[in-house]
């Protein structure tokens, strides 16, 4: 059946790629009011009618939550598309039936696993699944069971697809490690916010916007669709839309630095360029484990290429002499032309400094930015920095566990310890000191040994 409707007008903006993808997994996380469920319901009603052999399944953790959520949303979608008279919506059994062909949208819950794994339809093929509020599914194995239920060959023109929609309440959820911490060629992922919902009323929009100032941790989930931190995050200044930027060619005259945290468990080495106004851009990342010092130095040289580095920061413990060699790690790095400057290791002051660098402000064009921003290719820094929590014993410090999260942020802390003041753009003032008391800026590399 041809549906006479203007889809862009009905759906609105922000979902074109979601609507078109045919990848096996379609993962949609978003904040409140980002029309995730509404758009998904529209997609299912529209595509059941477009493909006469297709049937669909909608799943939630608990079956009895469907009636007032997904079932009601699909009824709304049929009305929105102007095809409500072509559908039959029944409560017992809970089903949506497309009258001309008998195609169905079925409903199941994880609280009845037998019905979930033995799904049959009278006509056509079960090819599409919508897992609503996927964050409620705590065990990834349960998702695998659902995934396996979509089996068998599809006729030409149909495809198997699982759609997950949810608010990303906690960053420990399996959806993050499975779909967002790594690239899956079979998965399409999308994060949406209330700003892509032009149908949202002013009162709801105002409530979400106010959370940015009244409850920043909740705003990250509700407003920005980012994964939340159980118990709160240390760097509540961090926002993906402000601190993560597209890479660009670094001008040659900008001063470049490197900073590292080194151990056999992980080498986290970062390249940072500072513009003439003092704003820092983290532009390159090396994040590898099981590298002895000589191998680490070689990898740094490989990734560095021809970049002219002004100064290289490292933690003080690299200057401790090792019993097996009598040399410090810093000395061994030096033997491979990796000359280091010892950074201050005052943890609390270092974290305070980093919070200042990350504090958002508006530039001269009224655009929100920060004194330190990160190229999007530095994926491990972007992943770990916003996950750091406060130490339970000392809320002024960062928790050292999970240890894997600390390597990249520690490296950046050593950088800001070497340049502790965030960039504040001010008009230049004439130096009022007598000429004899003026200290010229050092030129070339210098090393603290």
UniProtKB/TrEMBL annotation:
<protein>
    <submittedName>
        <fullName>Phage terminase, large subunit, PBSX family</fullName>
    </submittedName>
</protein>
<dbReference type="InterPro" id="IPR006437">
    <property type="entry name" value="Phage_terminase_lsu"/>
</dbReference>
<dbReference type="InterPro" id="IPR035412">
    <property type="entry name" value="Terminase_L_N"/>
</dbReference>
<dbReference type="InterPro" id="IPR052380">
    <property type="entry name" value="Viral_DNA_packaging_terminase"/>
</dbReference>
<dbReference type="InterPro" id="IPR027417">
    <property type="entry name" value="P-loop_NTPase"/>
</dbReference>
<dbReference type="Pfam" id="PF04466">
    <property type="entry name" value="Terminase_3"/>
</dbReference>
<feature type="domain" description="Phage terminase large subunit N-terminal">
    <location>
        <begin position="22"/>
        <end position="226"/>
    </location>
</feature>
């Amino acid at each position: 059946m041809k549906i006479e409707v203007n889809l862009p007008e009905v759906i609105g903006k922000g979902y074109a790629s979601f609507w078109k993808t045919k990848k096996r997994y379609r993962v949609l996380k978003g904040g409140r009011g980002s029309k995730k469920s509404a758009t998904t319901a529209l997609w299912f009603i529209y595509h059941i009618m477009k493909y006469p052999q297709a049937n669909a399944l909608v799943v939630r953790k608990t079956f009895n939550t469907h009636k007032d959520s997904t079932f009601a949303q699909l009824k709304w979608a049929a009305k929105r598309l102007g095809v409500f008279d072509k559908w039959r919506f029944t409560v017992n059994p809970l089903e949506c039936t497309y009258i001309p062909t008998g195609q169905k949208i079925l409903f199941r819950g994880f609280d009845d696993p037998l019905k979930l794994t033995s799904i049959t339809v009278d006509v056509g093929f079960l090819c599409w699944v919508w897992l609503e509020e996927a964050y409620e599914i705590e065990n990834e194995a349960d998702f695998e069971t659902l995934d396996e239920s979509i089996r068998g060959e599809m006729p030409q023109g149909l495809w198997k697809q699982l759609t997950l929609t949810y608010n990303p309440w906690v960053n420990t959820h399996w959806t993050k490690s499975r779909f967002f911490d790594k690239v899956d060629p079979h998965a399409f992922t999308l994060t949406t916010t209330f700003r892509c919902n032009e149908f949202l009323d002013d009162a709801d929009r105002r409530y979400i916007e106010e959370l940015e100032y009244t409850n920043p941790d909740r705003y990250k989930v509700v407003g920005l669709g980012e994964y939340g931190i159980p118990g709160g995050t240390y760097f509540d200044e961090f926002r993906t839309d402000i601190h993560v930027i597209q890479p660009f060619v670094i001008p040659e005259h900008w001063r470049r630095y490197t900073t590292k945290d080194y151990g056999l468990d992980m080498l986290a080495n970062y390249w940072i360029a500072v513009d003439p106004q003092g704003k820092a851009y983290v532009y390159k990342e090396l994040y590898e484990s099981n590298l002895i010092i000589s191998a680490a130095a070689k990898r740094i040289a490989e990734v560095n290429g021809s970049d002219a580095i002004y100064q290289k920061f490292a933690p003080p413990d690299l200057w401790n002499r090792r019993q097996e060699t009598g040399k410090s790690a810093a000395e061994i790095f030096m033997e491979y032309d990796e000359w280091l400057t010892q950074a201050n290791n005052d943890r609390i002051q270092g974290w305070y400094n980093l919070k200042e660098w990350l504090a958002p402000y508006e530039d001269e064009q009224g655009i929100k930015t920060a004194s330190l921003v990160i190229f999007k290719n530095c994926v491990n820094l972007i992943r770990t920095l916003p996950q750091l929590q406060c130490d339970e014993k000392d809320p002024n410090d960062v928790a050292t566990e999970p240890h894997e999260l600390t390597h990249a942020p520690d490296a950046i802390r050593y950088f800001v310890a070497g340049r502790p003041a965030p960039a504040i753009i001010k008009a230049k003032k004439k130096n009022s000191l007598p000429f004899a008391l003026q200290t010229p800026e050092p030129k070339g590399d210098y090393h603290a040994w």
